[in-house]
Amino acid sequence: MKQPVFKEIKDFIKKQIADKVYLPDEKIPTEMELSKQFNTSRPTVNKALSELVLEGVVVRFPRSGTFVTHQKAQTSILDLRNIADEIKQRGNDYTNELICLEEIKADEKIAQGLNIVKDQRIYVSQMVHKENDVPVRYDIRYIKPSIAPDYIKQDFKKITPSLYLQKSCPVQKVDNTIEATMVKEPIQKLLDIVSNEPCLLISRVVISNDEVASYSKLYYPSSRYKLNSMIDSTDRNFV
Q1: Residue extents of the structural domains in the chain
Q2: Which of the residues 28, 41, 47, 214 could staple to 6 if both were Cys, CB 3.0 to 4.6 A apart?
Q3: Contact 222, 137 (CB under 8 A)
Q4: How many Cα atoms occupy the beta-carbon half-sphere of 21 within 13 Å?
Q5: Contact 20/10 with Cβ under 8 angstroms?
Q6: Whose CA is closest to 220, among 193, 196, 186?
Q7: Which CATH class is domain 73-228?
Q8: d(Cα 122, Cα 119) in Å, to the nearest integer?
Q9: Per-residue pLDDT at 237
Q10: CA separation, residue 198 to residues 140, 154, 184, 232 (Å)
Q11: 221 and 191 Cβ atoms separated by less than 8 Å
Q12: How confident is the model at residue 152, as a pLDDT?
């Protein structure tokens, strides 16, 4: 059975977006153009576009037209998925920019996060992760050399810090703290965001072999990312 014309129009627009014919923030054909293309009335086209608006696929502006929404990328807060794999699975290009990779003395705050004494030598890395050349996450990671002694020698163009750590030390426990926060100008520049845009911040402590292995802060621009979680009720630990 042939589906209604308005559904054909909806499917057509969704496929054009999926195929990247219509890109995020780009204007799509007008009601008149679509009505001619599908040989139908403008009210039928309007119904299709109205449903797409409700679904969050497009947004409409009076006198300006209909535009593809800028879909936020999504990451899970309950696992340690490699961000490079996550981006590639969405069909997009992953790149990164290493800001620093060095050995430092831990100050009081870092020492508390890593459960070590102040001034103990540790490794630190800072990196910006990009999706289609757009910054989507800034990381700063503090690592215990005793857990990952070769961390400072890695080429993080070939392997991300999280993937290297997962391979180097078995994850026993992960403690995530999530908050919305404003960031200072250096991070604003790295993430290419305006001064009044908040970030989603995950502060993460990873336990390996009964000790803290790393203490990280992961910053996501709120306009480009959303966090999700899912609990399976069949899990025996579900309460």
Answers
A1: 5-68, 73-228
A2: 47
A3: no
A4: 8
A5: no
A6: 193
A7: alpha beta
A8: 9
A9: 38
A10: 17, 31, 10, 31
A11: yes
A12: 94
Distance between CA atoms of residues 185 and 222, nearest Å: 16
Task: Tell me the sheet residues that pair with 27.
Answer: 67
Residue environment code for 68-82, b if the CB has 16+ CB neighbours within 10 A, otherwise e: beeeebebeeeeeeb
The pLDDT value given to residue 76: 53
Beta-strand pair 134-143/211-221: antiparallel
The sign of the CA dihedral 85, 87, 91, 95 is negative
In angstroms, rounded to a whole number, what is the distance separating the alpha carbons of residues 119 and 107? 6
Give the tokens for residue 213: 């292995």
Other CB atoms within 10 A of residue 114 CB: 21
Question: DSSP letter at 122?
Answer: E
Asked if 160 and 167 count as a contact pair (C-beta separation under 8 A), the reply is: no
Q: What is the reported pLDDT for 28?
A: 93
The model carries a pTM of 0.66
* Chunked mean pLDDT (size 10), the chain, 239 residues: 86 89 89 94 92 83 83 57 82 91 96 95 96 90 94 92 85 88 95 90 91 94 70 41
List, in sequence order, every residue forming a beta bridge with 99; answer none if it has no partner.
Answer: none
Q: First-to-last CA distance in the chain?
A: 46
- Options 3.90.70.10, 1.20.210.10, 1.10.260.40, 1.10.10.10; CATH of 5-68: 1.10.10.10
Q: Around 79, how many Cα atoms within 13 Å sit in the side-chain half-sphere?
A: 12
